[in-house]
Amino acid sequence: MADSSADQVLAGLDPEQRAAVTAPAGPVCILAGAGTGKTRAITHRIAYRALSGEIAARHVLAVTFTARAAAEMRARLTALGVGGVQARTFHAAALRQVRYFAPRLLDGRAMPELLDSKVRLVTLAAARAGLRTDRAAARDLASEIEWAKSSLVEPDEYVVAAAKALRETPHEPAKVAEVFAAYERIKRNNGVIDFEDMLRAAVWGIEEHPDVGQQVRAQYRHFVVDEYQDVNPLQQRLLDAWLGGRDDLTVVGDASQTIYSFTGATSGYLIDFPRQRRDALVVRLVRDYRSTPQIVGLANAVIKQARGAEARLRLELVGQRPPGAEPDVRIFTDEPAEAAAVAVRCRQLISGGTPAREIAVLFRTNAQSEAYEKALTEAEVPYVVQGAERFFERTEVRQAVVALRAAVRSTPGGTPLVQAVVDALAAVGWAPDQPPPGGAARERWEALAALVQLAEEYASTPVLVPLGEAAISERPVSLADFCEELQRRAAQQHAPTVEGVTLASLHSAKGLEWDAVFLVGLADGTLPTTYARTAEQIEEERRLLYVGVTRAREWLWLSYASARSPGGRTRRPCRFLPQFDRSGGQRAAGGTENSRKSDRRRNQVISCRVCGATLLAGADRKLGRCPTCPSDLDEELFERLREWRIRVAGEQKVPAYVVFTDATLTALAERRPSRDEELLAIAGIGPRKLGLYGAAVLALVGGATVDELAPEKTSATEA
């Protein structure tokens, strides 16, 4: 009976998934690309082993990185007929064990209170170190302490460790170390612990107390770790303690989705897994069931250029879904135009039947959300913000609006709006220079900078003043006018929504997916961010874009604005997207109709008609397939086309390639177009050559011989 149930678990698996599920006991490394069914593989592996009698479900510990993923894993296992598996996050598993063993480890005392946030104690520690901090600065110091503790770095080791890791510290490293040490003292004096302490307590309990270690290892004998590329040294230390030298460990991960290294996470454990465990079986899942071949092809093209250690485990995904639309690549004059176009397209998608919850707008930083909140509001498209507060609900923005209102009375009349806003924001500690170090402080600075940008845009439209008798005058906008505008925007964006388009940063979108995805703001300086300076940081930015692309199931939009605001400085497109025009010039508006058509053709993403991969080389784009994909060339047609080309070139007294190149002839013989539209779809054939040669080419494709065609009378100068 058990064997029959186990066999049913194998039904519907592809060959690679089946290999992962049926792998023998021991170290197994599943390299799973986006959309390849990694959760399916690991849950079916657990179920197969349990239902076949190889293991007992109660002896399995499956570790995930989010409570949502753990809940999904438990639900899937229950549906497969397997209960009793412990699926938890590292922190939840450690908390359960520490609470259970606390009386034994602490001489009868209960586990100390667990801090839900470090910020309050870090603020006290900073004060003792002589630093005055606001909430953003305290969050940055707390994040730095979390990185150190997750990396097994002590306060007296911090300065050297931070230098080796090339950390961009929120203060001088020695001062951060001083805050770190003060934080640890305050924490001990208050009798509380933080999340990293809890993980370390679990390690200490197992490693230093043989009876505890024996009991834990008797309970948990088989381990599964999801998202293994995101493990940090402290979590790995806990995993090693659980294992106790045993090797029944299955890990699953994707080095190309390593995007949290700034927190201490490292893909090194995934990369080194086969070397550290010589008997390890490595299984690669590359069949992508999430996205269309066109989206898969673009994802492959983005990550194909990756360098560094993670690139050694790069996976070439193979799309399994029916063909879909090509990714929609757009270039706009400025960010407001980009946001407005996104909002219009969202409304069209919803009107066409796509649920709003199946649409996402993804950006690099949370400060970019305001433009899209405004555009969606004006387009009457509902939205929700994932992983962050709405722009006007953020603490620093509310404080800034209060400061702006207060400044209305003290600002001299005639002060230019932008200058008035900058002066008012000085009251909340903002200055128009380089943003401060530290992620939270930088995010706060960027949010306030977004208010200055709004002022720049708003100042360009003067206020109309009626004078009576239909006469109208103009006056510059004032700070009071701007405050009223901010109040109007805030009121609009505070409208409650039950379901809507998701606005999210690329980091918070990890692990999620939607039918339609907009990747916006793809300009160098934003993605990759200007703060990415080392080769490793640049590669992480590339992987961030890869994660964004692979969130889309059916439809993908990629866009950037040539300038941040109307008339602003021209920017270059994201270097990770080779299909963008490399000149970085404005191509979204202006120019002749022919030049705009040419721009659209150059910016179009062309996929291989055989495997769906994005084609980058000119010859490949012309052929419409990868050079390694099988050709369906009609050799007889190719010979007739070549004979016709020789005759036409001779009559026009020009080289043969002037008429059509060999690549174009090959494309014609492979694709066999039957209409003008199909001819124009072949790179290298534009309206002019269609007019000169289109009728003859279509006749040849239709079966005509060269002798049956009327002699070409086109002159060499016309060609």
TrEMBL record:
Identify the EC number(s).
5.6.2.4
Residue span, HRDC domain: 631-711
User: Ranges for the UvrD-like helicase C-terminal domain?
Assistant: 293-554
Q: What are the boundaries of the region Disordered?
A: 565-600
Q: Check the record and name the InterPro entries matching this protein.
A: DExx_box_DNA_helicase_dom_sf, DNA_helicase_UvrD-like_C, DNA_helicase_UvrD/REP, HRDC-like_sf, HRDC_dom, HRDC_dom_sf, P-loop_NTPase, UvrD-like_ATP-bd
PROSITE patterns with a match to the protein in the record: HRDC (PS50967), UVRD_HELICASE_ATP_BIND (PS51198), UVRD_HELICASE_CTER (PS51217)
Question: What are the record keywords, sorted?
Answer: ATP-binding, Helicase, Hydrolase, Isomerase, Nucleotide-binding
The main enzyme category here is isomerase
- Identify the domain of life: Bacteria
Q: Which residues bind ATP?
A: 32-39
What catalytic activity is recorded?
Answer: ATP + H2O = ADP + phosphate + H(+); Couples ATP hydrolysis with the unwinding of duplex DNA by translocating in the 3'-5' direction
Give the UvrD-like helicase ATP-binding domain ranges: 11-292
**A GO term, aspect molecular function:** helicase activity
PANTHER family, per the entry: ATP-DEPENDENT DNA HELICASE UVRD2, UVRD / RECB / PCRA DNA HELICASE FAMILY MEMBER
Similarity comment: family membership: Belongs to the helicase family. UvrD subfamily.
Q: What is this protein called?
A: DNA 3'-5' helicase
